[in-house]
Amino acid sequence: MPSPLSKTRIRLAWAIALAVDALQIPATFAGPPGWFLDAGLDVVTMLVMWMLLGFHWAFLPSFLTKWIPYLDIAPLWTLAVALATRGRGGLDPPSAPKAVN
Asked: What is the pTM of this model?
């Protein structure tokens, strides 16, 4: 099981993923200059996500599927972060100590 992550890391990863997806959707329709921005942003985002959350298989398909025309309209970084952070929000709070009889 992957190690738990701090809420700060999870929130930062979500914010970055949403921002990158918001930038990449218009870049897709900007022609070749936008495609180069899109590809560079993917590489940087993948590295940042690995540093924040560790390796997760969802980051690779998100990076690779951006090379398929018009598939990168979907918010794949947001989906990848959702998959990578699912169930990793920290440990359950400790329970109250039990009374000794």
From this structure: 0.72
